[in-house]
Write a structure and sequence with these properties.
Blueprint (H helix, E strand, L loop, with lengths): L1 H8 L1 H7 L4 H8 L2 H12 L4 E4 L15 E5 L4 E12 L5 E7 L10 E7 L6 E6 L10 E14 L5 H38 L1 E2 L2 E2 L4 H38 L6 H40 L9 H9 L9 H13 L2 H10 L8 H23 L3 H30 L6 H24 L5 H4 L3
Parallel strand pairs: 1-4
Antiparallel strand pairs: 2-3, 3-7, 4-5, 5-7, 6-7, 8-9
Helix pairs in contact: 1-2, 1-5, 5-6, 5-7, 5-8, 6-7, 6-12, 6-13, 7-8, 7-9, 9-12, 10-12, 11-12, 11-13, 12-13
Amino acid sequence: MGGEMVSRADAGFANIWGLQDCAETIAEFADEEIKAEFLPRVCEGQTCSMDLTEPDAGSDLQAVQLKATYNEKDGIWYLNGVKRFITNGDAQIKLVLARSEEGTTDGRGLSYFIADNKHDDTIKVRRIENKLGIKGSPTCELVFTNTPAKLVGVRRMGLIKYVMSLMNGARLGVGAQSVGVSQAAYDQAIAYARDRRQFGKAIIEFPAVYEMVSMMKAKLDATRALLYETTRFVDVYKAYESLEATRKLTPEEKADYKEYQRLADAFTPMLKMFSSEYANQNAYDSIQVHGGSGFMKDYACERIYRDARILTIYEGTSQLQVVAAIRHVTTGSYLKQIRHYEAQPINPEFDSLRKRLMSMTTLYENSVTRVAETKNQEYLDFQARRLVEMAGHIIMSYLLILDATRDKEDLFRKSAEIYLKFAEVEVRKHATYIKTFEVESVDVYKVQ
């Protein structure tokens, strides 16, 4: 909630104050000596960065080449190499993914290190990127030259364990950031639409405008519901982790722990994809509501539009979120959770909406079966985004209905009705596409 509120004011600043979960990673995986040295400094206001990507290792972090060498004489690790596109590149505390094992080429040769920027002569900012948006947060290219560093956790687990944990936290952070940006875009649009008058009345009174603004609100409420549901799953399984550190879990607690961890793994990529995509759509529509004025730097919607664009890219592109999410389609995790929502008590006035969602679920289930029966991995990859989107639309529709059922102030009913109409069209569109698409047709899309 804090991440969402800060991002609503400025998405760039949200990156600086803790979007990336660096302090949480230190607290969870570093030894007591490292925690005692660095965590108080974070609390004092020093900034952190996760230094992962390189010129030849963007999404493919297994290709990281920055070298970590252990000096037996002084018992210190030294880092040498280049990191690129580092958010908060000027940070005082740096978590660095580096290749510690000679002769390796994959993720099993990577370890995680913490470096201190007080060694100014060994870490150089070679370039500050001139970005489209989030300009309040510096993105840098860094050169490490014999930079002293400390090992976080154990060797070889840098990418496999620590960065994966960090990235999941960061993707939650981008989910919150995206909801904040969506809220800012909606706030600007609704305020302008109520204030701007044309043809003798406020433009919010024109159907073409009020439909657009209402859809913005529905997408905003849907992704906020998904954000809070996902973070609830994370909160519960993290609580079990903390409990397990103090005593052995009962069989029932262990099963519950695994279930919530599974749900967190399934919902995190879905959240990151939908919230960032909708933030971009809402930012786009906010400018459209403003008309020509929205194209001018006098209005905040212009900055919001530029800030939103990175959200579908960093901490894993939307395409990579689909790669992470599709296994939860094929294993039935999403369908199982949809059935859980379907069984929840709701206000009788929403019974007709639930019936429509049950029909949409049947379309989703049939589409999954149709794709899976081909036993063609390339075809599954081709249809993956459509399947993940179908699941997401159904899940967010249910979450809005459940919110509307709990709500005593009638804050979510309209969004539930509007979003379900939108979701129904999207689900049917994807189902029709999959039903009428032959496996061999994938070849047509390949670049010649």
